TrEMBL record, chain A:
InterPro entries per UniProt: MetI-like, MetI-like_sf
Record-given protein name: Peptide ABC transporter permease
Annotated GO biological process: transmembrane transport
Originating organism: Sulfoacidibacillus thermotolerans
ABC transmembrane type-1 domain boundaries: 101-313
Record has Transport as a keyword: yes
Entry membrane topology: Multi-pass membrane protein
SUPFAM superfamilies per record: MetI-like
Primary site of residence: membrane
Listed GO CC annotations: plasma membrane
Record's keyword annotation contains Iron: no
Key words, A-Z: Membrane, Transmembrane, Transmembrane helix, Transport
From TrEMBL, chain B:
UniProt-listed CDD domains: TM_PBP2 (cd06261)
Domain ABC transmembrane type-1, residue spans: 98-290
Pfam families, per the entry: BPD_transp_1 (PF00528), OppC_N (PF12911)
Protein name: Peptide ABC transporter permease
């Protein structure tokens, strides 16, 4: 029980730190981003004090002492109020994010699960047939693919499959002539547009799953209980799956939960390349337009999902492995 | 080299003891590493990239400031990798860019490992509340998502030079290495030879750097290379997003310019392919070296 209380405490602490970072960072840097925004408006013509006041209210610029601003900020976040987006004005930041989130969740989430399953199975196979042809070629190949920059793979796919072969669309999440409603036409277009982004994530992330599982499994295969299981004359598959893989999976569960947490913010660069209407592309848009309220909210949600996933991983790990819960192995 | 003590040796005694003497000397770490095939591939590749950074500008076909070639050319005989939208030679940029990319990667990697060593060692060596506090700090930094945090910080920094990029990457990237080095230090401190050194009255700094560090050198080197890989990829990502200094020529900014001038839609595949391959090759070379270090340091992963 103490273990779970400690993990909950850690979750709340890290969440508070992330929020506070979000609050402090803009105020630490020279020049106020909101003032820069005002200066931009001022370029179009002189601003009277009343107009300036109206602009400040419209953009939700902070007023009052730093301390009262901080409390205001915390209460705004608790109420899910992240202000107005500069670049999508008059939409609220929450509305903009609500539009983008499903795209990322579905695409990146599905591919992450898929690559994890395939990668882990291949990792088990490679470790079991260690030193054989598949193992040695797979480790070299996948350590190379996991070193590939995400966004670059995306660019090359666009060039080969989009530009030269003309098989797939090169940008966007759905055909521009359709409106995002739930029907087969739209779903088909969305799936068609997601092939290249999905392939990019799959190829660049499967190496990590494969190599992680392989190395864990090789370590497990050296344990005495594997030797015993073999000495007892259990079949090879039983030893491989029920004895070795099951135990080797334990630390991988954490990795998996972490990579699920990364889903929300995980493929920032890939989405930017494909102009895929998810969270990553939104982040790039916010960056280019100096849309600080949106940027902060995106960082908040990306961090929140990572922290929650991390918390879940800790809880699952604690349930699966009593040694961790009782404070033995750490 | 099997030596069976039950079987009387036929070779003269003098010769045998000679051979034993050479065997008893611990093999050099780098010799061991070189004997691993993957590490050998990695070291060779890394050497190639270093040569590129050192001699690249000397063998570059044109000057970096030459901007009066025909713009946006696909690869030709005069320009093997084509030209950019502002009329620069891509191959020349690639050769010059090696310097910036390697410099940023290795300096940021070095900074990361120094911070990681300092915090990890202090936590693992002194234990108690110092460890509790530093471990908490490491876990917090570790769990905050790296790239988004870098982007957030970089977005607020008014100027975007090489220094700023290195700084942002080092303050966000040290926690992983810190935690593994702490765990290593934690187990090392319990070893008999460290306890003996403590009883002999050695100072903490002496024990850490003369007794313990040599024994975990492989971990430190592997962590250093890991940090460089992270830095190389993160640098490319930040520059690609336009958070670097676009007027500096590095592999990351090359891709940034190629993307922003729609290079692949005008058939200039080489302009994007080449810097990306270099980034991937550099990262892969370090990964291969780390594979070798792993195989040498962890007997279970050792290859026959």
């Amino acid at each position: 029980m103490k273990y779970f209380v400690r993990k909950t405490g850690f979750l709340l602490l890290t969440l508070w730190i992330a929020i506070t970072l979000n609050f402090i960072l803009p105020r630490l840097m020279p020049g106020n981003p909101a003032q820069a925004m005002m200066a931009k408006y001022a370029q179009r013509g002189p601003i009277t004090p009343t107009e300036e006041h109206a602009l400040a209210l419209m953009l939700g610029l902070p007023t009052g002492s730093l301390w009262s601003q901080y409390w205001q900020y915390l209460s705004n976040i608790l109420h899910g109020n992240f202000g107005v987006s500069y670049s999508f004005y008059p939409l609220s930041v929450m509305a903009v994010i609500a539009n983008a989130l499903p795209w990322t969740l579905i695409l990146v989430g599905l591919v992450t699960i898929l690559q994890f399953i395939v990668g882990t199975l291949l990792g088990i196979y490679a470790a079991w047939h260690r030193g054989k042809k598949f193992d040695s070629s797979a480790t070299v190949l996948f350590s190379f693919t996991s070193a590939l920059p995400y966004f670059w793979v995306a660019l090359m796919f666009i060039y080969v499959f989009g530009y030269i072969l003309n098989w797939f669309p090169i940008s966007g999440g759905y055909s521009g002539s359709l409106s995002p409603t739930l029907n087969w036409n739209f779903a088909g277009s969305a799936i068609y547009h997601s092939v290249l982004p999905a392939l990019t994530i799959f190829i660049t992330s499967i190496g990590g799953s494969l190599l992680g599982m392989r190395n864990n499994m090789i370590n497990t295969l050296g344990e005495d209980y594997i030797l015993l299981a073999r000495a007892e004359g259990l079949s090879e598959t039983t030893v491989a799956i029920r004895y070795a893989a099951r135990n080797a999976l334990l630390p991988i569960v954490t990795n998996f939960a972490m990579s699920l947490g990364m889903v929300v913010g995980g493929s920032l660069l890939m989405e930017t390349v494909f102009a895929y209407p998810g969270m990553g592309y939104l982040l790039a848009t916010a960056l280019n337009n100096q849309d600080y309220p949106l940027l902060q909210a995106l960082f908040f949600f990306i961090t929140l999902s990572v922290l929650l996933a991390n918390f879940m991983a800790d809880v699952i790990y604690g349930v699966l492995d009593p040694r961790v819960r009782k404070g033995g192995a750490r | 080299m099997l030596w069976n003590p039950l079987k009387p040796s036929v070779t003269p005694i003098r010769l045998q003891s000679d051979r034993e003497d050479t065997l008893r000397k611990p093999p050099n770490f780098f010799v061991l590493l070189w004997s691993n095939r993957k590490a050998r591939i990695g070291i060779t590749m890394l050497f190639f990239f270093f040569a590129m950074a050192v001699f690249g500008p000397l063998v570059a076909p044109y000057s970096l400031s030459d901007t009066d070639f025909a713009t946006s050319q696909p690869p030709t005989l005069a320009h093997w990798l084509g030209t950019t939208q502002s009329g620069q030679d891509v191959l020349t940029q690639l050769l010059y860019g090696a310097r910036v990319s390697l410099f940023v990667g290795f300096v940021a990697g070095a900074l990361v490992i120094v911070i990681a060593m300092f915090i990890g060692f202090v936590a693992g060596y002194f234990r108690g509340w110092v460890d509790d506090l530093l471990s908490l700090l490491m876990n917090i930094v570790l769990v905050l998502p790296g790239l988004p945090l870098m982007i957030l910080i970089a977005a607020y920094i008014p100027s975007h030079g090489i220094g700023e990029i290195i700084l942002v990457m080092s303050i966000t990237g040290w926690a992983f290495g810190g935690r593994t080095l702490r765990a290593q230090m934690f187990t090392m401190v319990q070893q008999d030879y460290v306890i003996a050194a403590k009883f002999a009255g050695e100072k903490s700094l002496w024990i850490i750097f003369r007794e313990i560090v040599p024994n975990m050198l492989s971990y430190i080197i592997a962590n250093f290379f890991g940090a460089v890989i992270g830095a190389v990829l993160a640098e490319a990502g930040l520059e690609f997003l336009g958070l670097g200094n676009p007027s500096i020529t590095s592999w990351g900014t090359m891709i940034y310019w190629a993307q922003s001038s729609d290079a692949m839609l005008s058939g200039q595949w080489a302009w994007i392919l080449a810097p990306g391959l270099c980034i991937a090759g550099l990262a892969a070379s370090l990964t291969f070296i780390n594979f070798g270090i792993d195989a040498v340091a962890n007997p279970r992963l050792q290859e026959e």
